[in-house]
Design brief:
Distance between the termini: 54 Å
Structural class: mainly alpha
Shape: flat
Order of helices and strands: HHHHHHHHHHHH
Number of domains: 2
Helix content: 55-70%
Number of strands: 0
Strand content: under 5%
Largest sheet: none
């Protein structure tokens, strides 16, 4: 039996009780959070590129240049003159060529073909990057606890997006359409933003430990989180309306601001030849652009309210997140007005679409900071 110890003697050696280590909740369940976050960052960049290329495909009227859906064999473009002629003959059989592009040369066809092929090829690359990353982390058992379903969801949504893309394209291959159906385009773009938003949110989550998030959740700013959630929903509606504008080229018919060709509300807003009045909400250029403008004003006004509320946060990082959101919101308004005044010129219109991506992510980031505030330090000047 060991002798008596002084009350001032430190307890050491093999008989000492193990020290309690911080972050015990993360041990054994943390997985490869950093590596998965880098993989998600790559997917994020690819999806942003996909949205931009998709916008260019729409603005250049290239979306109907490939008339078949071949997920595997379509990865190879035409390799010979005979292959190109075959693809061109298929295109010449659809309404867009017959009603809009009759007489187009093979060289001109190649330009629009490459845009659509690039768009589809990028989708294949995204699917491959997801599959390799997910299966690799799964096989190595490096996925954090509770994250397998979330990462699998991204792959499922990506596959669904491919099917919706073909559903969209197929709407313009028959009848008298020279473009895809606008509501299908809105569905396609809307799901792209949902996927992008989920990737961004997962990256925000994985950027901090589970312990840190649990502790931060206790200090959540409920009112600010609810308001930013409402702003997120309103921004999503605005994105869908923007897709409707792009789908029927509504951005080119009223190149004036703040009026619409001298009027506040466009004439014949509810008229679509041979269609019921409700169809005007999807197919009348004047009404669709009017809704997009009004929704934009509402988004801007509510965004300012949310920003002012965010400025009252006790956390510097949260205030900065809402500041950046407000900066991008102003920039997006300017880009939107520029797109109107230039009748949706290519570089302005695509900048407006990329601006929507940036604003969407910054809203999500501000919302995340409201839910999981980052505690600052007065000593370090971060409070």
């Amino acid at each position: 039996m060991s002798g008596k110890r002084s009350i001032f003697q430190e307890v050491e050696g093999p008989g000492a009780a193990p020290a309690i280590r911080p972050g015990a909740i993360d041990r054994g369940t943390g997985g490869a959070r950093g590596a998965i976050r880098l993989w998600l960052a790559l997917l994020f960049a690819l999806v942003v590129a996909m949205i931009a290329v998709g916008g260019m495909t729409r603005l250049t009227d290239s979306g109907l240049s490939i008339t078949e859906w071949r997920p595997v064999t379509g990865a190879l473009p035409p390799m010979t003159d005979a292959d190109w002629q075959t693809e061109f003959d298929k295109y010449r059989a659809i309404p867009e060529y017959q009603l809009q592009n009759k007489g187009m040369s093979l060289e001109a066809f190649k330009v629009i073909y490459w845009w659509e092929w690039g768009h589809r090829q990028l989708g294949r690359v995204i699917g491959l990057v997801w599959a390799v990353g997910f299966l690799g982390f799964l096989a190595a058992r490096r996925i954090p606890a509770g994250w397998t379903g979330r990462l699998l969801l991204l792959g499922a949504l990506g596959g669904t997006q491919g099917a919706i893309g073909w559903w969209m394209v197929s709407s313009g291959l028959t009848g008298d359409r020279v473009d895809v159906a606008s509501y299908r385009l809105a569905t396609h773009l809307g799901l792209a933003f949902v996927i992008l938003g989920l990737i961004a949110w997962y990256m925000f989550q994985l950027g901090r430990s589970a312990t840190d998030l649990m502790q931060a959740r206790r200090g959540r700013e409920g009112k600010l989180f609810s308001m930013s959630t409402g702003l997120m929903h309103l921004a999503f509606v605005q994105i869908l309306l923007g897709a409707l504008v792009a789908g029927i080229d509504a951005g080119r018919g009223f190149p004036t601001w703040p009026d619409m060709n001298g009027q506040f509300f466009p004439a014949d807003a509810f008229y679509v030849p041979g269609r019921p009045a409700w169809a005007a909400f999807f197919e009348n250029p004047g009404l669709v652009q009017f809704m997009h403008r009004m929704s934009g004003y509402a988004l801007f006004a509510f965004g300012l309210v949310v920003w002012l509320r965010g400025r009252r946060s006790a956390h510097l990082a949260t205030r900065r997140a809402f500041d950046w959101m407000a900066v991008m919101m102003f920039g997006q308004v300017v880009l939107g007005i520029g797109a109107v005044l230039t009748a949706a010129q290519l570089h302005v219109a695509i900048s407006h679409q990329v601006g929507a991506v940036m604003l969407w992510v910054l809203i999500l980031r501000a919302r995340h900071m409201a839910q999981y505030p980052l505690a600052g330090s007065i000593r370090k000047g971060t409070a």
